[in-house]
User: Fold this.
Amino acid sequence: MKVLLVDDEKELIATLAERLSFRGFEVDFATTAEAAIQMADNKTYDLAVLDIKMPKIRGFDIKKMLETKQPKMKFLFMTGHGSEKDFQTAAAQTGEEFYLVKPVQLDMLIRKMEQAMKKQGDS
Amino acid sequence: MNGTIGILGETGLKFFGAMTASASHELKNVLAIINENAGLMSDLTEMMIKSGAVDLDRIHSLAGRFGSQVSRADRIIRNLNQFAHSMDHPANEVDLCEQLQVAVDLTHRFAAMKGVGLELDLPETPVCLKTNSFFLHHLLWLCLEYAMDVSGPQKSVKIDCNKHSGKVNIKISGLHHPPNRYEEGLLSEPGKAVANFLGAALISDEEEGSVTITLPENIVFSEGRQL
Assistant:
């Protein structure tokens, strides 16, 4: 699975990328929306994991930009903002189903990535 | 509770909530990084056991990363603690340089979200005044929030301070004031209430691109105004 991780916390995203690569995923990461869009111009990804709150932009808006470039790309969101219940409410309002609250457990992240691939692939 | 006190209470609570939510969000990021580094250390240990080769440089590097995140969390909690204690007294002796540093640290995440840089230019000697520290934090936040919104294409806001003729001045520069924005934005009802409570005057200089907060060296409460 080719995965694009997007979060402004570079140490977090670089470490997560390395750990996912140990488990057989092909992972790139970007710390800005601009870099993520540029990467999507040069490579096709199966799934993107997006931080909700990025400088100057929301993860939901990055999703829209990535979708226009790669309509088949699947998405999963991460947030450190508020509680899981807060995010469930926000996710329901925006129609997003796949999300995780930081700090994330790697096994849970992988499970959610697989669910997102399967569920969104069905739709 | 009279009208002004009611406005101060409402706006003060909103401000307190915004600051603590931002700090807790940043602490969540620190915990997430520590969590990933712990996971990476576990992964590397398993790989080293399997291969029999120990990469000590990698372990040292990871230990350093834990240390730097603990320092980051410590700084956030120290600022939060200082901010919380700003409510302890209606008026107390404040080192403005110290308070500006905490205010800028607390605003850092908001600035990053807006893509704005905050530059603090402080004098070497303390600038002391007697004021209400919490509402001074609040007024600084209102001014910085406004400044970040109108920081123009350079996206850089500078803050400096001095004491002159019994008045304390805080200048926030690097602004590109759109017409009427100053009156409508910064000097809205909560902003006016906070400035009045502190005895502060806000002077906008459109040509220079700055807002200066002028505070009395000693806050004077009018009857019934002391919180």
